[in-house]
Amino acid sequence: MILAIGCVEQNNMDQSTIDNQSEEEQDEIIHEEEETKMQISVQANGNTTIFELNDGKAAKDLYEQLPLTIDVEDFSNNEKIFYPPKKLDTTDTPMANAKAGTLAYYAPWGDVVMFYEKFGSAGGLYELGKAVSGGEHIKNMSGTIVIEKA
Fold first, then answer.
1. pTM of the model
2. Helix residue ranges, H only, the chain
3. Which terminus of the chain is more solvent-facing, meaning fewer CB atoms within 10 Å of its CB: N or C?
4. Which SS3 state, helix, strand or coil, does residue 68 take?
5. Which among 45, 48, 43, 58 has a CA at the least distance from the CA of 147?
6. Reduced to 3 states, what is the DSSP secondary structure of residue 101?
7. What are the distances in angstroms from CA 29 to CA 10, 15, 65, 102?
8. pLDDT, tens only, 54-83
């Protein structure tokens, strides 16, 4: 019973702290959170696609390997793939339900996948992020691409 009251009191204290912050302070916190989102740019054939990465370990591992200049390959009829130099750790990484614009990692083969059409899910397919701009360029990516922190 004491533990439950302590948790309620802590929650009330946290809420009162939030309530006492000025609107300007709250906006600043939101702005800081937006600035810390990991984004990458993929440049291919004169076009740029920007992906926003999630907080999973695999996305962080990919981000730490940048910049990369690497070959992109066609795979199937809905995706482009590339192989990062080091395998990604999928701990705490969500499984993917891929659609157009999804950036994913297929752990069994160690490749990063950029989907330009709907795919769905598969065992070993983990979500890294999603295209926030230029997703329409994924389908035409070919040859050597440049991937950088955005």
1. 0.77
2. 2-20, 23-35, 57-64
3. N
4. strand
5. 43
6. coil
7. 21, 15, 28, 28
8. 999 999 999 999 999 999 999 999 999 999
88-123, pLDDT tens digit by residue? 999 999 999 999 999 999 999 999 999 999 999 999
Q: Return the DSSP state at 43.
A: E
Structure tokens at 82: 């590339």
What is the per-residue burial (b if ≥16 Cβ within 10 Å, else e) of 46-82? Answer: eeebebbbbebebbbbbbeeeebebebeeeeebbbbb
Q: Name residue, tokens 């990458």.
A: 40
Q: Residues, the chain, total? A: 150
Strand, helix or coil at 150? coil
> What is the Cα–Cα distance from 25 to 22, expressed in whole angstroms?
5
Beta bridge partners of 37: none
Alpha carbon distance 118, 55 (integer Å): 23
Residue for token digits 């690497």?
Answer: 70
